[in-house]
Amino acid sequence: MEFPVNDARLSPMHCSAPQKPNLLNKIVDGIIVQTHSRAELKFLNEMRQLNHDNLSTFFGICVNELDNFYILYALIDRASLEDFIKDPDFPIDDLFRSAFLRDILKGLQYLHKSPIRCHGLLLTKNCLVDSNWVLKLTHFGVVGMLHEFIEGRVLRSLPEYHLNPDYFPMFAPELLKETGNCDNYPHGSPQGDIYSLGMILYWLMYREDPFSKTGLRGKGSCYFPLFEISFLISSPKGNLVDQMLRMNEKYAQNLEQIVAERNALLQEAQEQTNRLLNEMLPASVAQVLKEGGTIPPRSYDAATVCFVQLCDFSALVRRSRSDEVISFLNDIFDRFDTIIKKHDVYKVETTGETYMVASGVPNENEGRHIFEIAECSLDIREVSRLNKHDFKVRVRIGFHCGPIAAGVIGIRSPRYCLFGDTVNFASRMQSNCPPNQIQTSEVTALKLMTTNEYTLVRRGIVQVKGKGEVNCYWLNEHVHENNHVAH
User: Fold this and answer.
1) Euclidean distance between CA atoms 186 and 175, whole angstroms
2) Which Pfam families match (predicted)?
C-alpha cells in the first residue's frame, strides 16, 4: 500500500495507541509546506470524509522536521491485486475475477460521484485485498494535488521518487503528457480511470501486459456510447468469502488427488534420504538412528577388514583432467558397490583411490565374514580389469580378521567407524601387496584353508611396518569341490 511516489517499499508505521488504525506512509522529499490555501484545505477535508467499504481510509498529509512530505492511508496488509495476478501459484478463476472487478467498480463509482471526481492513479498495485478478501482502492485523489505542488515547486521530485515507467501503459495517453520527464504526476480524470480500468480488466483476464503482444493494428472506430457504471454491476451474491465457501465443494473433489500427489512426492523424498543415509551408515544402524535411538560403541571378538587400492593412480591424475578423474573414480567405485551388494559386506569409506570394506560388523554373521570378504575380493579384482584410455587398471587388495571396535562418530554427519589393530593390520596387508594380488595374513589364510574351497599360495615372510616379520599368503582363486576354478 505504498504511495507510488517512490518505487522502494517502506516498512509500515504502527501507531503506539492500540485503538488507532495502522498507517503506512510514503515519503516525498521536499520543502516544508507552511500554509495551505482554502481550496486545498477544503479538498483535504473532503478526502477525509470519504467512507466506503471498497476504499482505504485517507488520514491526511503531514510534513516532518526533516522536510519529508507524508501521505497517510489505512494499512491493508494482505496483498495487492498485482501480487495475486503475478503469482503463478494463485489460481484466479471467474469467481475471483467477478468479485475483484465488482469491488473495483463499486469503489470507482463512489469516487466518481464524490467531490473528488476521480481516482487518478488506478493501478493494480493500488487495488488492495484485505484479510476478509474485500478489495479496497487506495492512493486515490492525491495525484492532482501532487501535480500542483511539484509544478509550483512546493515539492521537489527526486529521481528515485519518479513515476515508474512500467505503469505508463495503465494511463490514458492524454494523461501521460502531464508527466513531463517522468518527474510529475497526471491530474487524473474520470475518463482516465475508465481507461485504467480496462487495463486492469485485461490483466485480470489474461494475467499479462495488455501491450505485450506485437503486431497489433487498428481495426476501425473504437468509440462507443457512454455507459453508466451502475448498469455493469450485478447484484452481489455475498462477499468473496461467501463465494469461496461455495467453491469448497468443487475443490474438495480434487483434494484426494492433490493429497496423493503430495504423499508421492514426500515418499520419494524420504526414499532419497534413506538411500543417502544407507550410503553413509549400515542399514541396521541407519534404521535405529531414524527411529531416534542411539548406537552405543561396542567391541567384536572377530571381524574381517579389507582395503582395495588403485595402483599408479597418481599417474592417471597427472595426465587427465579433473572431471575425467572424478568420472573414472565414479565408474570404478560404482562397479565395486555393485559387487558388495551381492555379499554380506559393508562399505566403510572411500578415501582418494582407496576403498575400505568390512564384514562381521555391525551384523555378526557367525564367522562367515572371512569368506564373504574373500569372495568379494576375488570379484573386485576380476571387475577391475578394464582400461581407461591408455591407463591399465590394477588393484592391490589386502585383508585381515581379528577383534575390532566400532561406533557412530558425529551428530550432524554421522559415520560408522572401525578401530583397532585389525584395521591397521589389514591396511598393511594392502600396502605391502603387489598389483593385481590379494594378500592376507597367516591366521586368516588358515581359516580359509579349512573349507578347501580356495587356492592359497604361501608368499613367505614379509617385513610389515609395526609388526615386524609376518608370514603372508596370496589368495588366488575359489574352486568348486571338483577342483574346477570358480573364478
Assistant:
1) 6
2) Guanylate_cyc (PF00211), Pkinase (PF00069)
